[in-house]
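User: Fold this; tokens only.

Assistant: Input:
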Amino acid sequence: MSKDSYNIRDIQNVELTILTKFAEICDRHNLKYFLDSGTALGAIRHEGFIPWDDDIDVGMPRDDYEKFLEIGQKELGDQFFLQNVRTDKNTPFLFSKIRKNNTTFLEWNKRNIDMHHGIYIDIFPYDYLPKNEEDAKKYINDCIKLNQKFLNMTIPDRAMQPQKSLKWIALAVVRRCIYYSSNIFSKEKLIGKCQQVFTQFNHDDEKKSDVLFSPVFCGDYRFPENIMFPPQKVKFENQQFNVPCDHDTYLKTLYGDYMKLPDEKDRVGHRPAKVELGE
């Protein structure tokens, strides 16, 4: 199926199937999760998907996230694949995805990566910031830098659809040069460093604050624990899923006036290179 011939609603329906399975597993094992980012925004503003959005995001506290990784693939069964750096060696992100087997959602900048490219939902881990503000700023800056290093090492291509302009080609060459030069270093050591830095305050009761932060986000977005938990159920596509309990504060932190629709020119999703819906 070409990038122009699919119906976004068909992609959303596959993603909803994945989300439903994920939520069932979390509820059965008492694992905390919440609809995250644009998916939470869609739940509150549209009671479902943002009409032009072609992915689903969920967040989990790190401990619950790790527990899910331990049981996830067995619980998901043969229909789905739990993808991360542990299960798919060329994975170019430091969080997890659940992909639907026998489907395709091929993003332009990942088209030359040998990995599972099925339709997916994203699962983002959340960690605790330190109490000291200077330490918190340093921690966030370290996380952003480590994420960028990992992206440089694992993604060889630009995110945009290839073009014939000299500017596009020149920037594509620069991107490849960054990719190849980054790969003189050990990816396994970098993954280990990221895990150590991201989680360093989670179990240090003297230094740990009650503020959550997702280290895989490239921005300073902080969420006090009491606006996140306990999550509450809201309607999303005629089903019930968790969102942060104070979803108003959460969404204002991310989007400001979140009920205001963006300009029509900005109402776009990932614009994949290839989509296959499977059977």
